[in-house]
Amino acid sequence: MFLKRGLQLSALPGVSLGYRTPAFATERGNLKLSLNAFSFNAALRSGDVGIEALFDFCSQQGFAAVDLTAYYIQDYPQVPPDEVLFGIKKMAHHRGLHISGTGVRNNFTESDPLLRKAEIELVKQWVVAAAKLGAPVLRVFAGPRLQEGMVWEEMAVLVVEACKECAAFAANYGVIVAMQNHNEFIQTAAQVDQIMAGVDEEWFGLVLDIGSYSQHDPYEEIQKNIRHAVNWQLKENVNHYGTQKPVDLPRLMQLIRDSDYQGYLPIETLGPGDPFEKVAGFLARVREAMG
Q: How large is the greatest C-alpha to C-alpha distance in the chain, in angstroms?
C-alpha cells in the first residue's frame, strides 16, 4: 500500500517505512472532508455561483478542502495563465481551504492514435496545472461505455498504456493521476483491479466513486477497491444492482475505518434542488456517521 500512495522514503536517511501502521489507521484514521465542486455544476456553469462564492460556502461549512474540477476554471479545456491558477490557490488559502484535487474529462479508449494522443496531452497539461494549484490528485476517466462490437479487454490495453504514460509524467510534478470508476467503461471492482495491475505506477491511484458500482453489491465492491483509493466521491446514493438507494453511511464509514485509507473524503450531491441546502444536509449526515 505504501508504495502506491507515497514516496519511496526508505531511500532517504532516517526515514522508515512505518508510514501507516495498522494500529494507527484503526485507532485514528486521519480523515478530512472536502467538497467536490460538481455538486454546484449547474450553478457554476451558468455563472450563478463563482469559484470565490463556492470557497466562501465551503469555509463557512467547515470543509477542509475543495475538489475543484477543472471544468469550472477559466479557459478549460485550455490551461489558463499562471496568475489565474495561483489566484485560485491564494483564494482557497485565505479561506483556510486546501485544493484536494481537480479533474478533467478525457477518453483513453479513443481508437484513433492521434486523437488518443491529444487526450493524453490534455491530461499532461492539467497535471502541470494541478501542481500549480497545489492539488495532489488529478482525476481522469477511462472512457465511455463500450459501443457495439468493442471488446473490453482490447480497449483496456489502450487505457492502461495511456494511464502509464500520464502517471510517469505526473511523477515529475508530484501529482497523482487517479482514475475514477464512473460506471461507464469501468463498472466493477474487478475491472478496477485489472486496470490498476496493468498500470502499476507509483503515481497512479483510484478516485473511488461509491455511486458507480452497478453490477454487484456496492459495499463489497468498495471494500475490494479501497486499497487503491487516493481520493473519493462520497455520494448520497449507491447504485444497488441498477437501482439508486440511499448510502448506508455508518456501514461505509466502517469500511473506510477498517481500511488503511487516510486523507480527504470529498462529498458530492447530485440531482435537482438548491445545492447549498443539499450539500449542507448531506454534510451533516456524513459528519454524524463519522462520529
A: 55
For 187, the grid coordinates are 463498472
pLDDT of residue 42: 96
Strands 31-36 and 204-209 come out as unpaired
Q: How far apart are CA 51 and CA 70, in angstroms?
A: 11
pTM of this prediction exceeds 0.85 = yes
Query: Which residues, 6 or more positions from 177, have their beta carbon under 8 angstroms from its beta carbon?
Result: 123, 127, 137, 138, 140, 163, 166, 167, 170, 201, 203, 204, 205
Write the pLDDT tens digit of every residue in 211-260: 999 999 999 999 999 999 999 999 999 998 889 999 999 999 999 999 99
- Buried b / exposed e along 82-111 (16+ C-beta atoms within 10 A): eebbeebbebbeebebbbbbbbbebbbbbe
- What letter would DSSP give residue 259? S
**Distance (Å, whole) CA 202 – CA 5:** 7
- Measured distance CA(269)–CA(283) in Å, rounded: 10
> Distance (Å, rounded) from C-alpha 199 to C-alpha 262?
22
Residue at 15: amino acid letter:
V
Amino acid in position 82: D
Cell numbers linked to 219: 459495499
